[in-house]
Amino acid sequence: MIAGTGLIVFSLFFGIQKINGLGANINQILNQANSPNPQTENNNSAGNVPAKSDIDKDGLPDDEEAVYGTDPLKSDTDGDGFLDGEEAAAGCSPISASPKDCDLKLDSGQANINLTDYFSSLILGGVLSNDLNETNPKFNEYITNLQNEALNIQRTLLSIDEAELKIETNEDNSKKSSQEYLNSFENILKNHFLKQSEPNLGETDFAGFDYSPYLEDAKTTYEELANLKPTQSWSELHEKSLKFFFELKTYFSNLDNQKGDPLKALLTLKNTDRLLDDYENLIKEISGKVKNENLKTGIFNL
Hints:
49% of the residues lie in helices and 0% in strands. By secondary structure, it is mainly alpha-helical.
């Protein structure tokens, strides 16, 4: 085991996994889904403007199909399981089946919009189209599509864009340079990541836990590691380390904003086991390389 039994990430992850009350409030979504949309109310009841023609019954009026480039005779132009009108209402492209076709744009491992609001729009679209009516034959299909969308987002929610990983290596690949790199690497971990004091896991309320100190540590660790120049032989493990700490800071950032976006936090939490596995594998790889190169270490002594 890595030296220092007070390692934050293990103790904190372990505590999080024991939390029963996730605090993710989906009442907001359900309330929005059951609220009338003034823009889609049938104005015929007031005897004013007749309802617009919608031949394929996808929630997108025929005169707007051309604007979006959709097929007015096909309710799901891109075949991704969501009606054209539902995707348009959610800010997504109804002509692209890619999971990244929405305004949320999962760039650099983060959704740029509030995922709670995003799924609220999809649920609201399902309510307005009657797809979320249990008597509708498409009900189960729509629920499955929502689940798949959530899973797709969860898988990429923490990931870093490979284009952002610009690592400058040290041309001197000697043992001395590798040892200097390892010393700098370990000092960064000791200063910002490895702690001797255990985190306060007394809180059992997911929403009430203060993640900001861990976010700051993970963020600083990532930023300082990004400025290191590994030797060529260490560049691959350095890249893996950067990916891990980028994901870790995104993880804590999303949890820290649990009240602002509970669904994003909940999807983030589902990545805990994977992060633990990635961390354990990374430590094993680094420890193995330290041993193979016969380098001195105060941390990686598996």
